[in-house]
Write a structure and sequence with these properties.
With 293 residues, this protein is an all-alpha fold. It has 2 domains: 56 residues, no CATH class; 220 residues, MetI-like (MetI-like fold, Orthogonal Bundle), CATH 1.10.3720. Helix content is 72%, strand content 0%. The protein has 14 helices and no strands. Helix 4 runs antiparallel to helix 10, helix 7 packs antiparallel against helix 10 and helix 12 packs antiparallel against helix 14. It is globular.
Length: 293
């Protein structure tokens, strides 16, 4: 028997709906504002920087100016190199380490695990890391942004947990048939932990995309900076970055404000476009191996 809704139930649902709508507005409006402001004239934006619902003095000049600047073009090229090469190295090393840690009855497994976990809580520090990069000849090189963080212990533990949930009988049967470790890893285990691998790709990819501090330390050439460092320079001192004899002072004055919002959209749009395609793997990949029974 269905109970009739009381007046208190209606009020409760109404209050919950209003609170959720408020939270949705608070969450989405800053993103909406950035997009609208990027198409708004700088004069209108400076004159009335408050609440806006539509572009005032619609213009795409900020995007044209941003996309034509060589530092943004080189920034995208550098971040794509870091993403492609870095993700390949990240996933390969994570798979090898997780396979080792998930294997049974191996020598030195516990000491290796202890050393890896130790690095999660203690590091050499900024200055020793800088001196290490200099001594290895990686200074002012994109490899300085890839190799030091080539493997994440946290992501390795996630991958190991997923591999431990796979029955040992699969690997044992493959060994009886003459398969070696590479065959077991890439032809048996890898397809079974693919959702977890997709999640780790997202973790590593977002980490590379949002990282700006290592590049500010190890990169000296502006044309080797990734896109996030270029965005940071635009947001902090856009006139100094853009005024390099490439655009006129009039253009800088015209788009001095909107160029910031256009740069934010340009640098965040790729991640927003890719994430929906990976979302269906996200919960499944994280939960694999979380509960064992």
């Amino acid at each position: 028997m269905i109970r009739e809704r009381s007046f208190a139930d209606v009020i409760f649902d109404l209050i919950n709906t209003l609170i959720m709508l408020f939270l949705v507005f608070v969450t989405l409006y800053p993103m909406y504002y950035v997009i609208i402001a990027s198409f708004t004239s700088s004069v209108e934006l400076i004159k009335d920087p408050g609440f806006i619902l539509y572009p005032r003095g619609f213009t795409t000049g900020a995007y044209a100016m941003a996309l034509s600047h060589p530092l943004i073009i080189s920034g995208y090229r550098n971040i794509l190199f870091i993403m492609i090469i870095g993700l390949a190295i990240n996933i390969t090393l994570t798979l090898f380490a997780a396979y080792f840690l998930s294997s049974k009855n191996l020598m030195f497994k516990k000491p290796v695990l202890f050393i890896m976990l130790f690095t999660m809580f203690f590091s050499g520090g900024l200055i020793p890391g800088y001196l290490n990069i200099r001594s290895l000849g990686l200074y002012d090189s994109l490899w300085a942004l890839i190799l030091p963080g080539a493997i994440s212990v946290y992501n390795t533990i996630i991958c190991r947990t997923a591999m431990e949930a796979i029955p040992d009988s699969l690997g044992e049967s493959a060994r009886i048939d003459g398969a070696h470790d590479f065959t077991i890893l890439f032809r048996i285990i890898f397809p079974l932990v693919k959702p977890t691998i997709v999640v780790l790709l997202l973790y590593y990819g977002i980490g590379h995309w949002n990282s700006w501090f290592p590049a500010s330390i190890y990169i000296r050439d502006n044309f080797k900076l990734p896109i996030q460092n270029v965005l940071r320079a635009i947001l902090i001192a856009n006139s100094g970055l853009l005024n390099a004899g490439i655009v006129s002072d009039a253009a800088i004055d015209e788009f001095s404000e909107t160029i910031k919002y256009a740069a934010i959209v340009i640098t965040t749009l790729p991640v927003l476009c890719i994430y929906p395609f990976l979302q269906r793997y996200f919960v499944k990949g994280v939960m694999i191996g979380a509960v064992k029974g």
